[in-house]
Amino acid sequence: MSVLVYTETEKGKFKKNAFEVASYANAVAQQLGTTVTAIAFGADNAEELGTYGVSKVLNVAEASLSDFNARAFALSIAQAVSSEEAKVVLLSSSTDSKFLAGILAGKLSAGYAPNVVAAPETTEPFIVKRTAFSNKGFAHTQIDTDIKIVGVSNNAFGVVENPTSADVAAFSPQINESDFSTKSVEVDKVVGKATIADADIVVSGGRGLKGPENWGLIEELAEVLGAATACSKPVSDLGWRPHSEHVGQTGKPVASNLYIAIGISGAIQHLAGVSASKVKVVINTDPEAPFFKAADYGIVGDAFEVVPELTEKLKEFKAQNA
Amino acid sequence: MKILVCISNVPDTTSKINFTDDDTKFDTNGVQFVINPNDEFGLTRAMWFKEKQGATVHVATVGEATTEPTIRKALAIGADEAIRVNAAPTDGYFVAQQLAEVIKSGGYDLIIAGRESIDYNGGMVPGMIAAMLDMNFVNTCISLEIEGENATAVREIDGGKEKIATSLPLIIGGQKGLVEESDLRIPNMRGIMMARQKKLNVVEAVGGTQATKDVKFERPAPKGAVKLVDSANIDELVNLLHNEAKVI
Ligand SMILES: Cc1cc2nc3c(=O)[nH]c(=O)nc-3n(C[C@H](O)[C@H](O)[C@H](O)COP(=O)(O)OP(=O)(O)OC[C@H]3O[C@@H](n4cnc5c(N)ncnc54)[C@H](O)[C@@H]3O)c2cc1C
Ligand SMILES: Cc1cc2nc3c(=O)[nH]c(=O)nc-3n(C[C@H](O)[C@H](O)[C@H](O)COP(=O)(O)OP(=O)(O)OC[C@H]3O[C@@H](n4cnc5c(N)ncnc54)[C@H](O)[C@@H]3O)c2cc1C
Predict the structure, then answer these.
(1) Residue A175, annotated ligand binder?
(2) Nearest to A159, CA basis, from A255, A11, A62, A17
(3) CATH code for the domain in which residue A247 is found
(4) Is A267 labelled a binding residue?
(5) What residues does B138 pair with on adjacent strands?
(6) I need a labelling partner for B12 at 20 to 30 A (CA). Which of A4, A81, A204, A233 fits?
């Protein structure tokens, strides 16, 4: 028996969330008195996972499995689960991992707890704490099936080093042509820019910015911080910004280290989606804006004056601390 | 084309979330229930298929009799028929099994579910159904076009989008983008009247395993007071973020 973790790669390199789920897997393995096996698809430096306590890596090298395909990946992971006799499977909260999670759970007849924020409270019965009701609450979820799948929230458990040496073995899942019946035909992805899902810092703008022509303010601040840009729902509904930037209960969830909200009032649906961020800063002209109640730091002031100055100060700060 | 839209009955997005019975149950007292927002986008997309290409649209929910106002609303928006599986939806796995049965016996070509139910945030039901029935599946779906047996979908990915070619039978986990907010339909009087005549079939649950159980709930810890920084002293904010919060 072991604990199996799916570690995601992007062009052969592990994503940051891979190290976080591997760290989580190691904590579970210690509780269960077993070891961690990882499965990766086309990882260039699979042994790197040893740093986070993974002792074996199943590296899939098949060309047909070099690009993400939810069904084919889920079936491959299911085969690794059976060859490793794994009882606990760990996934990240990326869009791709959430895509394959349901398929994997269905195939393995396994209970799945998503959005988990801490190591299991007990393993007998197996209980994990997860967010629910769009961050307005937590649920302690007991998984009763023989095989258990846990989706680890971004940025909640953290990356923990636990150096060991990882044996890397080639793994060749048996996947039929018919399992590729949903085919990717085109990927349109921003490159070289932090995404809302992975970014440590997210800078977000609301209707208080008055119009799309003013988004330079947001982008310049984001650039100094290496942050992703986001927006409130009306901003995307008005077409000022693309839908992919809409965050909140009905948009993308944000779980960054720092979330900076500019000209956003802090409606309950907005807060629900961003409150998992560790530190929240609000810049708003209205001292009564509800977001101040949910924030750690705030400036009551006009974004058009405050933001350029903050950007300048941060540039100076970065220059001094470079 | 025969379409099934899966509808989760959820607390309205403005609801305050409280728990009762020693924090073991969600307190539904005073809570207004609505069609899950992701499913509302899917339902409108289904209506467009019906109007532009010809389709029969059924809606299904797994829930007790208290969910009927929500499902009637879906009928008032324009669905032709509704199915309610008469059982408490205890977890995503159980719900997926029940819906898989409905789909098998109904012979649907396209199943439109949501990316996530905004109550328990499972994000698992459509994927589980896809695995149980070996159907094509596209999650976080923001656009869907169908021609004959062929489907072209766009899904949101981290940092962008991906276009996918696939075929019926198909299940999607949909969200805003399938249609826009401004396209959503509000039931009118005629729709509400017509909905009363439409069939709402109540079927009993078949077997079903509960794979997970929420044994206890908790509200987030109350937040400490915000630290306000004077707009004339922005250096102080940089200092706090660096030395106190340690996030830059
Ligand atoms: C079913 C449903 C789901 C929803 N889901 C979401 C969701 O996922 N995400 C989301 O964001 N919303 C969502 N909403 C919408 C939500 O209720 C709010 O309407 C929305 O978040 C408000 O956006 P905003 O803060 O940008 O705009 P507003 O509420 O108009 O706030 C603008 C703010 O800018 C401030 N301001 C004005 N001028 C300046 C200036 N010069 N400098 C600084 N500040 C300034 C104002 O004081 C105000 O606080 C949802 C609503 C519903 C009904
Ligand atoms: C009083 C009450 C108590 C409940 N307690 C719990 C609980 O403790 N734990 C728990 O996990 N669930 C509970 N539920 C059920 C919950 O509302 C969901 O129906 C179910 O858990 C699936 O949630 P999910 O977050 O996994 O769905 P997701 O996988 O996030 O849902 C994705 C999509 O699947 C479809 N779908 C989901 N649920 C249904 C449904 N019931 N009928 C039709 N389509 C559906 C929708 O299209 C939805 O957009 C309770 C429901 C009620 C009414």
Answers:
(1) no
(2) A17
(3) 3.40.50.1220
(4) yes
(5) B172
(6) A204
